[in-house]
Amino acid sequence: MKKIFKYFLLAILAVAVLGTFWFLWKKSRPVIKKYQIETVKSGTIEKRTVATGKVDPRNEILIKPQMSGIIAEVYKEAGDVVKSGDIIAKIKVIPDMISLNSAQSRVERAQLSFTQSKKNYDRDSKLYEQKVISKEDFEKTQLQFNNDKEELGAAKDNLSLIRDGITASTAAYSNTLVRSTINGTILDVPVKVGNSVIQSNNFNDGTTIATVANMSDMLFVGKLDETEVGKIKVGMPMDITIGALQDQKLTASLEYVSPKGKEENGAIMFEMKAAVKIPKNVFIRAGYSANAEITLAKAENVLTIPESCIEFGGDTAYVYVLKTIDPQTFNKKQVKIGLSDGINIEVKSGLKFKDQIRGAEIVDKKTDVKKTDNQN
């Protein structure tokens, strides 16, 4: 029994020694690396940048009242399409008591004068017909009657204007009716029935009754980093992608770049604006977040390779051109590169169309798994 156990231990020891020698021999053998083979192609390289921002109407008009008072009626709401002159709201005037009393007093005085002038006019008319008084005297009485009649009408209009904000002669153009000044869409109506409103004057901007904008004339308003703002210029085209409309890409033309930057989160940003072309079947809401893709440079029909194939030695770029397939051998070759889009890069010289070059290393998954297990 002891001999059997002894032979068993010797066998295990022999296997361990042989396994160790095999492992060391295997490890000492050179590792053969394999690489993906990339082909030189012909294509277009575009260098683009992205500006973030939003889409807003070019002009948002604030509709303000021409008199102070209380909102009596609101006829429109946000989203309604209006034309210039359409009534948005009606204001009820709250008169100043001093002005109201003064206007009422003026009407009473004008009424007294008119009553007396009418009596004089009626009496002198009969006397003139009987040729008791001269034409000149009658005309004076007639002039006074007409003046008092006109003053009574003016006093009544003034009282109506102070008390109601409207007169019989100007009812169609009353300041109590707040109207849209442009054709467009109502973006906001911040007031409700019963709210007090103030007319615009030298000391107050006045209460905004509604905000109206032409939704067919929109701008992309965004910001661009200082490292790229020098590469753009007015008139450049760009593609607008709106977050709320994933399947819709719009075109725009750059109209404005701010001459002064502002610091934001440690970077200097410059405001930019671009006119957006909106198809008739697309409705854009004010304030949509959007991205603008701007083509800074473009090279068409040029030789291209993946940028990952390039190796640099100082200021010189190199690639490895395929020499033999099995085993893989390569020749190191200097190339002159051009425009890059971050994935592919232009090759100006050093390679020909359909040349094959070394790409990324092919990783042996089994070997990689064993390495990972050993590390763990």
Walkthrough of the structure:
- By secondary structure, the chain is an alpha+beta fold.
- The chain folds into four domains: 88 residues, conserved putative lor/sdh protein from methanococcus maripaludis s2 fold; 93 residues, Efflux pump adaptor protein, beta barrel domain (Elongation Factor Tu (Ef-tu), domain 3); 75 residues, RNA polymerase II/Efflux pump adaptor protein, barrel-sandwich hybrid domain (OB fold (Dihydrolipoamide Acetyltransferase, E2P), Beta Barrel), CATH 2.40.50; 68 residues, Orthogonal Bundle (Helix Hairpins).
- It is built from five helices and 21 strands.
- The strands form four sheets. A six-stranded antiparallel barrel has the order 2-11-15-13-12-16. Strands 3-10-8-5 form a four-stranded antiparallel beta sheet, with no helix packed on it. Strands 7-6-4-9 form a four-stranded antiparallel beta sheet, with no helix packed on it.
- β19 and β20 form a beta hairpin.
- α2 runs antiparallel to α3.
- The two termini are 41 Å apart.
Which keywords apply here?
six-stranded antiparallel barrel, conserved putative lor/sdh protein from methanococcus maripaludis s2 fold, Elongation Factor Tu (Ef-tu), domain 3, elongated, alpha+beta, 376 residues, OB fold (Dihydrolipoamide Acetyltransferase, E2P), single chain
In short:
With 376 residues, the protein is an alpha+beta fold.
- The name of the CATH architecture of the largest domain is Beta Barrel
How many structurally independent domains?
A: 4
| Major sheet characteristics | 6 strands, antiparallel, barrel
Helix content: 25-40%
Low-confidence stretches: 367-376
**Count of individual beta strands:** 21
Arrangement of strands in the largest sheet: 2-11-15-13-12-16
User: What does the oligomeric state look like here?
Assistant: single chain
Query: Can you tell me the CATH superfamily of the largest domain?
Result: Efflux pump adaptor protein, beta barrel domain
CATH class of the largest domain: Mainly Beta
Instruction: Please tally the helical runs, counting DSSP H or I stretches of 4 or more residues.
Output: 5
> What structural class results from the helix and strand content?
alpha+beta
Shape: elongated
CATH topology of the largest domain: Elongation Factor Tu (Ef-tu), domain 3
Following the backbone from N to C, one meets helices and strands in this order, namely HEEEEEEHHEEEEEHEEEEEEEEEEH
